[in-house]
Design brief:
Strand order of the largest sheet of chain A: 6-7-8-3-9-10
Helix content of chain B: over 70%
Oligomer: heterodimer
CATH superfamily of the largest domain in chain A: P-loop containing nucleotide triphosphate hydrolases
Largest sheet of chain B: 2 strands, antiparallel
Strand content of chain B: under 5%
Number of helices of chain A: 10
Strand content of chain A: 25-35%
Number of strands of chain B: 2
Largest sheet of chain A: 6 strands, mixed
Number of strands of chain A: 10
Helix content of chain A: 25-40%
Structural class of chain A: alpha/beta
Number of domains of chain B: 1
Distance between the termini of chain B: 48 Å
Order of helices and strands of chain A: EEEHEEHEHHHHEHEHEEHH
Number of domains of chain A: 2
Largest interface: A-B, 27 and 19 residues
Shape of chain B: globular
Strand order of the largest sheet of chain B: 1-2
Chain lengths: 238, 290
Amino acid sequence: MPDGTLLATTGLRAGYGGKPVLQNVDLAVRRGEIVAVIGRNGVGKSTLMKTLMGLLPASAGSVTLEGRPIDGLPAHRRARLGVGYVPQGRDVFPRMTVEENLRVGEMLRNGPVPRADYDEIYASFPILAERRAQRAGTMSGGQQQQLAIARVLIGRPGLILLDEPSEGIQPSIVQEIGQRMVALNRATGLTIILVEQNLDMIRAMAQRCYVMDKGRIVAELDAEALSDRDTVRRYLAV
Amino acid sequence: MDVLGAVAASLFQFGDTFAFLVLSASGLAIIFGMMGVINLAHGEFIMCGAYVTVLASRAGLPLPAAILAGALAAGLAGMVVERLVVRHLYSRPLDTIVATWGISLIASQGTLILMGSTMQGVGTPLGSLEVGGYHYSGYRLVLIAVALALLLALYLFFNRTRFGVLARATIQVPHMAEALGVDTRRVYSLTFGLGAALAGLTGGLYAPTMTMVPTMGATFIVEAFVTVVVGGADVFLGTAPAAAVLGVVKAGLTAGYGQLFGQIGLLVAVIGFIRMLPKGISGFILRERA
């Protein structure tokens, strides 16, 4: 195990009802990195995220967090170890207000959350401050995406699993979210694993990148390869 | 004065029916609305609360404390049932119905064997008071107040407390609540316990007005189910308005034509409601809003 590894998988397999999706996924993410997992639709990227979070049981292989295996832990225990999950489709609590959504995120942290942390979140997401008493289900996709991110940030996670944050959101907001995540990463050393198909988002955020196909990691791109637009585009079209 | 007296009498009649419907249905509504579980043992949780209340009261506890003991006992019984049976059937709603029906039969027949076919009850406290030529049971007035207070308390509990917020999150998007660190199994267990405790509270509250028999839960079960069916899945937007509407129908017909027609009118109204609002009153309100 190389030093500084935050999360690693070895031979990870998972699927739905006996239908295998992930077939032997090996990856490692160091503390403070932003790593993207890219690939076409249906290659198992979201399944990988759900398996890392513990929402889907792994049928074989292992996941370690800070060197300790977390395979036996249910999702809520993994969350309390500081893993924040921002799912595809956002999954905000639709009939709860913005502020109530944030309160659920407090559970990531094993202690009380001071009011100042809410002020900080509201300062960096002004749209949420404006709508703190509005029901989350009535907001636009971009606003919901910001809420889903803020909801895990309130719990001060060490690692965020970000599943297709650009999906169904207008480009200006995509860019804004990307910049904010990078800034957070620089300021606090937050580690991010990002699943994405949007070329701009990948290049704006990722320092390194795994390419997935048919449930396997088929290539790994370093920063240099990522800086070449055509290389990344080719892999997205694999 | 005559008119005022008649108005007060029908208000009382309505309030009495409303309280009975709200108290009968709230526990069932929480378990159905928040967990999607149709709990056919609801009546037996009510019976459990009533029996414990009467036993505690005859053992010397003051009635309010005895009623709380009844609610507590039913709540604990509910958590045991959830842990042993219901938890394993969350993904199989039809099996839950059969299983809770089985629990219902075991509980009522078990009580029959252990406690006999009837048990000495406790008298109705508080006597009666006279307004405008009509006599009203003081205890029934207390029940009306309790029903209103219970709705308020439940509203505050689910909207103002930390557990309430986590429970609503769990009900709306279970996997997301789990992924944010909420122990959803514990939330389900406590929610089921709360529903059972409310049933127990209802049993305790009505124990002094009823004959204590092991099948007494059946008295509540029809009203409880029709209120939940008419109300839909939301306790506040559904159960309370459903109880109000059905209360008017039943109280009005009972006053005019007697108990039997009150009951018939209630059931006919329910059929009409299901025809017009298949998702209940709360389903209708929520669709309008969305």
